[in-house]
Every structure is written in structure tokens, then in C-alpha cells.
């Protein structure tokens, strides 16, 4: 649970997780095994198609939630089930407590329900003097430890067998060893007795099927079957987001849910309960069943044009499984009750701004969660939007506000960068790095060296050196982004050389400025919109076949976010759509459009490995082009482990959370060094900055370069 | 290979992937023999596997005393087959029951049931169990043995959707997809079978 009051306290909490070796190793192993397991489970299936079908069907269900609830309720009641509606968590808990009282129930067994976690149901029931036992093994363990879940599907993933052994020793009053098989058997025996004693069973529901009035439960342990069979009263608590029109919609989700959650084709048990079932412990032989359908802000959420997609979440937990930040710090620090990417969002809506305000900053925007989400939710975008909303309410911190103001004024911004060049002079080394960290950075930032500002920005070089192209094949505009303009102009120059040789006529619109992603990352939406509008005006889109950028982050931001940022300005929106269509990254342009050949380049030999920038591989879905270019460009490509995992840069993220950034970088560089390559290539100046700075600190022999530079060097 | 054979093969492959033990037999009589044989071979103190041998609390321990004899539960078997089974079981010294499952919550050795359908692409059994006795037989048994006629195997869940709906509309209904044994990976992500339900799932494919 999130307890920190401010970012400083939150960072201290994160530090604790970073120091927890067991947690780190477990999450690392899990992240790697999960990826392989999932890929295997989905082999031969059209995953994208399935996910977009799920998104469409969940959206449709959300749009008619009221009608679906009415249908569900009517069918359920006709089959002898009592249906309740709860507007918030307190009301849901009160309804359930009253059911217990009315039916004279004292002892309750529960099977896992995130919704009950959300309402803190156990807490309220215990306050009423009821005994509640969680029966899902992981849930039982954390209940005994008085903790919240640290993963949606594996709630006790943060604990070792030794911790569980000690816990069970306490619980049974007998010494336990730490063999997992045995611990599981102990739990089986202990919990069996609880089922026998219980008079009420509480479950969640994964599906609420309107056409039958029944529910579906997805479990591996089978506890939901016992919980819904043995006690004479059964209560199922579910959010309105679980409503689906047809059984078919549920079966479709079932194809993805277990595969995405744990890489299983299906869970051991899927239980379909329709109507008041036989119960031999009840006087009339019939079970008393209650459905409690919870709103708790969901119906408001569904009305929001942007956030309605949150309703598509099927609680598979995959967004945590792939999140590099979750992998470092675990669920207790990457969420309040719901964890991972979706947790950051739901925390804001279900548990409020105070619980969410630190959490939402802890997203590096790598898009891994978006890429894997079973409902196709644009999670990083929603996280940023919440960050922006919170800041709108609370006011931005001063330095951030300043940056926003500066970015909005291109001339001022560029003047500052030029002045910085003189300011750094006494500390800049000949090798392009700053020798000492400037005062604004504290010691935690020393995990990487920082680059010096270049002598001549690209825009000045361009004025003198713009190549003349006779009989152009393509007309393109260059978008440099600030880093390549002012820090690494040689990357742009390298691109210009190869383009000119391939009959590409180039233009560099001078009024272009920073793409605006950095301020958007900080949640400064207003500044981000202003910058977008400026850049759109700077480019005469119609005059070009393509607009090329060598920065993956710029490319993905320009392509995907610009049309959204100017949505409320119809004139600009049209322009943004056309602009977005023309955006292309360097590797795709050179490999797929220019179709350069191996014979165009000299063999320089040497082994090169590759780091796939998040915004290239996931943001733009570009995978093969850069790797093919490395081979064509005369180098031997050696694959690096976890090539598509974030390097930890994330722009302002690495400033806010240097400890996390440095850990991500360490892993990345370990993998890179293990390849034995002499050169590390990538497609994004931000990544170059992070990777080069880290390798410099390590004193490594490996050179970091943009793919464009190698091609320019080896061009025949 | 005919499409029917292909389905059967796929079903077997997928079921075995989740550690179900699949055997092909000629008919129900052979299935019955299989169950008797399995019950005989099961360890004398068969409950050991499910936790009685562990250091458990006194309350949980008391539950074990309730069980004295090996028990086969077959609450939904056809009358005739059940008669035959129960006679043979008695001879072998096992208790055979078709009701009163709640008296045996410490555990029964074998739950002997039949599935309505099999789903090939995941190796899943579809067992409709509105009767509480049948439901418990599939849950509190150490080994669940389930018969499935080969002709009842379908390609995927969409192919059983209509059948499911028909059954669900005759409320009350309680239906299960069962795929492999009860499992957990909640401690250190290490897979352990039989956490609440059966430790083993035996699927008997019957020729028809
Ligand atoms: S964008 Fe990346 S860092 Fe942010 S929540 Fe998603 S996976 Fe985690
Ligand atoms: S947001 Fe997507 S990935 Fe995350 S739990 Fe929900 S459905 Fe799964």
C-alpha cells in the first residue's frame, strides 16, 4: 500500500525494495520466464486480432452497462439469486455484512477477489465480528501477514519459502520446514477445515453474463468451487466492469486471460454458476446466493472519453509482468491495492489523488504495458494524463513550470542551450563528456557521465553545409529534436550524408523546436500542446514525401501524440493527421524506403549489438529494419539478451528516480557486455546519452553509436 | 488422419501438457476396472500426500481421524455400472459411495465421474455438475478419474458454447471446465499440484 507523503518519502520506500535481493531475483526470473511462457501459450494465434476484438466488445458492454445490468439482474433473479447494487465500497461492504447478519453467518471463507481488496471488505467484516479466511494460498499467506497483494495474480510473489515456513510454524503451532510441496499440503489441510466450518462463501467474478444471469470464475487452485459449494450462503462481489452481454464474450476473454496472466493455455478450473444451486447444508436444499454489483466510480469512468478504456481491463496482471519499474520495486511500491500500470490508474480513481500522486510519476513511459495489455488499453498515456490532472489541481513544482515556459519559447530555449555551451566550458572534457556534474545534480546521478553541448548545433551546420541534390527521388524534411540538434549533431550529419548519396532532397525547417515529449512526461499538458502547435506550423507537410527523425522518442511522439494533442483545434487536427502520416524513423526510411543494399557499404567488420529503443520497437512497431541495416552496413550483428527492454533513460524519469534509472542501466549494460561486441548501436539519442554515459562510468571499451553513424562511415 | 482422430490427438497432447494422465479404453467396464486397480495401488495411507503427514494444527489433524477406509465416490454413475462397481469395491475392501459426500470432507480417494464434452485446444473437460454430490466428488477426491467418450471431443470452447447455453438456461446450473489437477504457484512461483482439489486427474477416453 502507498503510504508516502511526498516524492522524497516515496523514493526512500523504493530504496528498500531495491535493497531486497530476494524480491529482485524473483521478479527478474519471473520477467524472463514470463515472456517465454506467454509467447509459447499464444503460438499460432492472432493475438492482436483477439485483443482488438476484446477491446471492442468491452467498449460496447461499457456503453450499455445500465441495460446489461438490468438484463443480468432480471435473469439472475428469475433463477433465484438476489442481486444488489452498491454505489461505493462502503455500501458494498455494508450489504455483505447485512447478508451475514440476516442469515446468521459467523464464519466466512473467501476466494480471491480484487474487488474485495478494493473495498477493504475483510476489514469491515471483521469489524462486525465475523471471521474471514482467505482460501487462495497466496491470499491466505498475505492475510496472515496482514499485507496487501504484491501482484494481481500472484499476491505473495514477494515472499520466500522460508518466510512462508516461519509463518506456518506460527499458525499451526508446529515447526514447519521450508519445502514448498509440504507447505502447500499443510495449507490444504488447514484450509479444508475452514471450508467445513464456514457458513458463508465469498467470491469475486471474472465474468457476469447478462444473457444467462450467471457468473464465471477463473481459478487454478479450485478454491472458488469449494467456496461456492460448501457454505450455505454464497456472495459474489463484482464490479460493473465485469458485465458482458453474451457467454461468447466471456469465452473470448478466456482465450487471452490465462495466457496473458501466467502463460497458461487455460486455468485448471473455470466455474460457471447460474441460478441458486443445490446445497445440502441448507434447510430447503438450495443455496442462498447474492450478487453484489459495485460501481465505485466505474460508471463515471466509462463516461470519460479518454478513460473509458480502463473498463476493458480483465485483471490479468500482464502490465505488471512486463513493467521494468515493477520488476525493480515490486507491487507494494508500484501500486496501492491494484498494482502495475493499471494499478497506477485505478489507484487514482478508486483510492484518490493522495494515494496516486507519487505513484504516477514512477512510470518510465516505455510502453511495454500497452504492448501486452489484454484490453489494448493505452496505459502509459492514461498514467501521464492522470499525472497532468493531479498537477493541474496541485500546481506544478517550480523548476518544472520554468521548463514548460522555456520550451514554449523556442528562441529563448535555444539561446539558453547555446549559452550553456559557454557555461560548461571549464568542465567539459575533450571527449564530449562533462567532467563534473553540474550543481543541480546530486550524487545519485553520478551513475552515468553526461555529455557536453556540441560546439556547433546542427541547425548552424545545416546553414553552411546543406547538400544540393540533383534529380531528387524523394523530398523529405528533417526533424532533429533538441538532443541531436544541440548535443549530437554528428548523428544528423551522418544521416544527411547517406540521404544525399541516395538522391534524397532535404529541408530543415528552422522554426522547429523540441518535440515536447519531455514536458508531457512531466505532466505539463499545456506546454506540450503549445509546442506541438508550434512544430506543426513550422512544417509545410504537403511539400514532403516523408518527415524523418533519428530520435525514436520524437518519432513516436510526433506520430501518435500530436493528433491527440491538437484534437480540440479542428484546423490543426487535419494538419496533424497528415503530418503524422509522413513521420518515419531513420532505419525504416533507409532500409524499407531507400532499400539500401549490402553492396553500397564497405565491410568494416567488427561485432555490433543493438539496443532497441522503447519508442522504436513498441512505439512504432519497428523491429527488423535497424538489425538488417547493421548487417547491410558492414558489421556483424550479435543479439543481446533482453534487447527490447528499456535502458532506463526515460528523459525526466532518470532525473526523478536516479536509483531506478541506474539499475535499469546496469542490467542493460551487463547484457551488452556479455555479447562481446565492440559497438553498441541504437536509434535514439536519449538512449545514446544514457548508454554512453553508463559505459564511460564503467570504463568500458564498448562504443555507443547511432545506426546512422555506422552507415555513413561505411558508405562506399 | 481423420479430423476426429486429429481432435483426439490434440486433446491428449494438451491434457498431458498440464499433467493429466490420459488412457484410452474400450468401454465403461474397462474404466471401472481402471478405477478399482488405481484404488488398490494407491498408498495405504493415501492421505499422506494431502497433508496428514505434515505437522498440522490439532484441529486440522482431527479431520484425518474421520477417514478409516479407502473411499471411491461415484455419485453420478449410471445405476447399473454403479451397482457393479460397488459390489467389486466391497470385495476389494473399499468403501463405495454415491451420496453423503459431506461426511467425507477429509477426503475421498477417488472421485469417478464422466464429462459431457472435451475441448481439444486446451485439453479441457466440461463437467456439468448441478448436483452437489457430483461437484464435491470432483473436488475433495485425491484422484479425480473422469470418463470421456472420444466422440464428445470438440475443437474449442466456441464449439461447446451452444451446449453450455442450453444447460445454463435450465437453471440452476453449475458447470466446470477442468484442465489438469488443482495447482498453485503462489510460493516462489514453484508449481505444486493438489492445493485444494485433486492431486491427480486421470482422463479415460472411451472408444465409441
Ligand atoms: S510504460 Fe513502462 S514503466 Fe510505465 S507502467 Fe508501462 S511498463 Fe511500466
Ligand atoms: S490493464 Fe491490461 S494488462 Fe493490465 S491487468 Fe488490465 S487487462 Fe491485464
Automatic annotation (TrEMBL), chain A:
Record InterPro entries: 4Fe4S_Fe-S-bd, 4Fe4S_Fe_S_CS, Cys_rich_dom, FTHF_cligase-like_sf, Helical_ferredxn, LUD_dom, LutB/LldF, NagB/RpiA_transferase-like
One example of the protein's molecular function in GO is:
oxidoreductase activity
Gene3D superfamilies in the record = Alpha-helical ferredoxin, NagB/RpiA/CoA transferase-like
| SUPFAM superfamilies from the UniProt entry | alpha-helical ferredoxin, NagB/RpiA/CoA transferase-like
Residue intervals of the 4Fe-4S ferredoxin-type domain: 303-333
Q: Lipid biosynthesis: is it a keyword of this entry?
A: no
| Annotated GO biological process | lactate metabolic process
Pfam families (alphabetical): CCG, Fer4_8, LUD_dom
Key words, A-Z:
4Fe-4S, Electron transport, Iron, Iron-sulfur, Metal-binding, Repeat, Transport
Q: Electron transport: present as a keyword of the record?
A: yes
Looking up PANTHER family in the UniProt record yields: LACTATE UTILIZATION PROTEIN B (PTHR47153:SF2)
Q: Return the protein name.
A: 4Fe-4S dicluster domain-containing protein
Automatic annotation (TrEMBL), chain B:
Query: Transmembrane ranges?
Result: none
PANTHER family for this protein: LACTATE UTILIZATION PROTEIN C (PTHR43682)
Provide an example Pfam family for this protein: LUD_dom
Would you tell me the protein name for this molecule? Answer: Lactate utilization protein
Coiled-coil regions in this chain? none
Q: From which domain of life does this come?
A: Bacteria
Enumerate the spans annotated as LUD domain. Answer: 8-206
InterPro entries in the record: FTHF_cligase-like_sf, LUD_dom, NagB/RpiA_transferase-like
Instruction: Give the species.
Output: Pseudodesulfovibrio cashew
Amino acid at each position: 500500500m502507498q503510504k508516502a507523503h511526498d516524492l522524497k518519502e516515496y523514493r526512500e520506500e523504493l530504496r528498500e525494495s531495491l535493497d531486497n535481493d530476494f524480491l529482485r531475483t524473483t521478479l527478474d526470473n519471473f520477467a524472463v520466464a514470463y515472456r517465454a511462457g506467454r509467447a509459447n501459450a499464444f503460438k499460432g494465434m492472432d493475438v492482436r486480432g483477439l485483443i482488438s476484438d476484446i477491446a471492442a466488445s468491452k467498449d460496447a458492454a461499457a456503453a450499455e452497462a445500465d441495460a446489461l445490468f438490468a438484463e443480468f439482474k432480471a435473469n439472475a433473479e428469475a433463477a433465484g439469486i438476489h442481486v444488489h447494487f452498491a454505489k461505493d465500497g462502503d455500501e458494498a461492504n455494508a450489504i455483505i455484512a447485512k447478508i451475514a447478519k440476516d442469515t446468521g453467518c459467523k464464519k466466512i471463507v473467501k476466494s480471491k477477489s480484487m474487488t474485495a481488496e478494493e473495498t477493504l471488505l475483510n476489514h469491515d467484516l471483521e469489524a462486525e465480528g465475523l471471521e474471514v479466511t482467505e482460501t487462495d494460498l497466496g491470499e491466505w499467506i498475505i492475510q496472515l501477514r496482514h499485507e496487501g497483494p504484491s501482484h494481481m495474480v500472484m499476491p505473495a510473489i514477494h515472499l520466500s519459502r522460508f518466510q512462508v515456513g516461519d509463518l506456518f510454524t506460527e499458525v499451526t503451532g508446529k515447526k514447519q520446514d521450508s519445502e514448498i510441496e509440504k507447505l502447500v499440503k499443510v495449507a490444504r489441510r488447514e484450509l479444508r477445515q475452514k471450508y467445513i466450518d464456514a457458513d458463508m462463501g465469498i467470491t469475486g467474478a471474472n465474468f457476469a453474463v447478462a444473457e444467462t444471469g450467471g457468473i464465471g470464475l477463473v481459478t487454478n487452485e479450485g478454491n472458488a468451487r469449494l467456496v461456492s459449494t460448501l457454505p450455505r450462503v454464497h456472495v459474489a462481489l463484482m464490479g460493473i466492469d465485469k458485465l458482458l452481454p453474451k457467454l461468447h464474450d466471456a469465452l473470448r476473454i478466456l482465450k487471452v486471460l490465462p495466457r496473458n496472466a501466467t502463460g497458461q493455455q487455460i486455468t485448471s478450473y473455470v466455474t460457471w454458476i447460474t441460478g441458486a444451486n443445490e446445497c445440502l447444508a441448507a434447510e430447503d436444499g438450495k443455496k442462498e446466493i447474492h450478487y453484489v454489483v459495485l460501481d465505485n466510480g466505474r460508471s463515471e469512468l466509462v463516461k470519460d472519453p479518454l478513460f473509458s478504456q480502463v473498463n476493458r481491463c480483465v485483471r490479468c496482471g500482464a502490465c505488471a509482468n512486463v513493467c521494468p519499474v515493477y520488476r525493480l520495486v515490486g507491487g507494494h511500491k508500484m501500486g496501492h491495492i491494484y498494482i502495475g500500470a493499471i494499478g497506477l490508474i485505478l489507484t487514482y480513481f478508486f483510492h484518490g489523488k493522495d494515494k496516486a500522486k507519487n505513484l504516477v510519476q514512477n512510470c518510465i513511459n516505455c510502453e511495454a504495458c500497452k504492448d501486452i495489455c489484454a484490453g489494448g488499453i493505452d496505459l502509459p498515456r492514461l498514467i501521464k494524463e492522470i499525472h497532468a490532472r493531479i498537477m493541474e489541481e496541485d500546481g506544478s513544482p517550480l523548476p518544472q513550470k520554468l521548463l514548460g515556459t522555456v520550451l514554449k519559447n523556442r528562441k529563448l530555449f535555444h539561446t539558453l542551450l547555446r549559452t550553456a555551451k559557454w557555461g560548461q566550458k571549464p568542465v567539459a572534457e575533450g571527449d564530449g563528456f562533462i567532467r563534473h556534474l553540474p550543481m543541480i545534480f546530486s550524487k545519485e546521478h553520478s551513475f552515468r557521465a553526461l555529455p557536453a553541448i556540441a560546439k556547433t548545433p546542427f541547425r548552424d551546420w545545416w546553414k553552411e553545409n546543406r547538400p544540393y541534390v540533383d534529380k531528387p527521388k524523394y523530398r523529405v524534411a528533417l526533424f532533429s529534436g533538441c538532443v541531436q540538434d544541440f548535443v549530437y549533431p554528428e548523428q544528423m550529419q551522418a544521416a544527411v550524408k547517406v540521404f544525399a548519396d541516395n538522391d534524397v532532397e532535404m529541408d530543415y525547417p528552422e522554426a522547429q523546436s523540441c518535440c515536447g515529449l519531455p514536458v508531457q512526461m512531466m505532466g505539463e499538458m499545456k506546454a506540450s500542446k503549445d509546442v506541438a502547435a508550434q512544430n506543426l506550423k513550422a512544417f509545410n507537410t504537403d511539400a514532403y514525401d516523408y518527415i524523418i527523425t533519428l530520435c525514436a522518442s520524437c518519432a513516436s511522439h510526433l506520430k501518435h501524440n500530436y493528433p491527440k494533442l491538437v484534437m480540440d483545434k479542428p484546423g490543426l487536427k487535419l494538419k496533424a493527421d497528415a503530418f503524422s502520416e509522413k513521420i518515419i524513423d531513420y532505419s525504416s526510411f533507409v532500409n524499407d524506403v531507400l532499400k539500401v543494399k549490402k553492396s553500397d557499404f564497405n565491410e568494416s567488420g567488427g561485432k555490433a549489438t543493438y539496443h532497441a529503443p522503447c519508442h522504436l520497437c513498441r512505439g512504432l512497431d519497428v523491429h527488423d529494419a535497424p538489425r538488417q541495416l547493421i548487417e547491410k552496413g558492414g558489421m556483424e550483428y550479435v543479439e543481446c539478451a533482453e534487447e527490447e527492454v528499456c535502458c532506463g533513460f526515460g528523459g525526466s524519469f532518470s532525473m526523478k528516480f536516479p536509483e531506478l534509472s541506474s539499475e535499469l542501466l546496469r542490467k542493460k549494460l551487463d547484457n551488452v557486455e556479455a555479447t562481446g561486441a565492440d559497438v553498441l548501436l541504437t536509434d535514439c539519442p536519449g538512449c545514446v546519452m544514457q548508454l554512453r554515459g553508463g559505459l564511460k562510468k564503467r570504463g568500458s571499451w564498448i562504443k555507443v553509436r547511432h545506426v546512422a553513424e555506422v552507415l555513413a562511415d561505411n558508405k562506399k | 488422419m481423420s479430423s476426429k482422430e486429429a481432435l483426439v490427438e490434440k486433446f491428449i497432447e494438451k491434457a498431458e501438457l498440464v499433467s493429466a494422465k490420459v488412457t484410452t479404453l474400450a468401454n465403461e467396464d474397462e474404466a471401472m476396472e481402471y478405477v478399482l486397480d488405481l484404488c488398490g495401488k494407491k498408498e495405504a495411507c493415501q492421505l499422506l500426500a494431502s497433508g496428514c503427514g505434515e505437522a498440522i494444527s490439532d484441529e486440522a489433524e482431527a479431520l484425518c481421524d474421520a477417514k478409516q477406509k479407502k473411499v471411491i465416490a461415484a455419485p453420478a454413475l449410471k445405476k447399473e455400472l454403479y451397482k457393479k462397481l460397488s459390489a467389486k469395491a466391497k470385495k476389494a475392501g473399499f468403501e463405495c459411495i454415491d451420496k453423503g459426500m459431506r461426511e467425507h470432507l477429509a477426503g475421498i480417494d477417488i472421485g469417478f465421474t464422466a464429462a459431457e464434452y472435451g475441448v481439444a485446444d486446451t485439453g479441457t473437460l466440461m463437467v456439468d455438475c448441478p448436483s452437489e454430490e457430483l461437484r464435491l466428488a470432483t473436488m475433495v477426491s485425491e484422484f479425480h478419474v473422469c470418463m470421456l467418450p472420444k466422440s464428445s471431443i470438440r475443437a474449442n470452447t466456441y464449439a461447446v458454447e451452444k451446449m453450455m447455453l442450453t444447460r445454463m438456461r435450465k437453471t440452476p446450473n453449475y458447470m466446470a471446465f477442468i484442465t489438469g489437477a488443482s495447482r498453485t504457484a503462489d510460493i516462489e512461483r514453484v508449481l505444486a499440484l493438489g492445493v485444494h482439489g485433486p492431486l491427480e486427474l486421470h482422463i479415460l477416453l472411451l472408444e465409441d
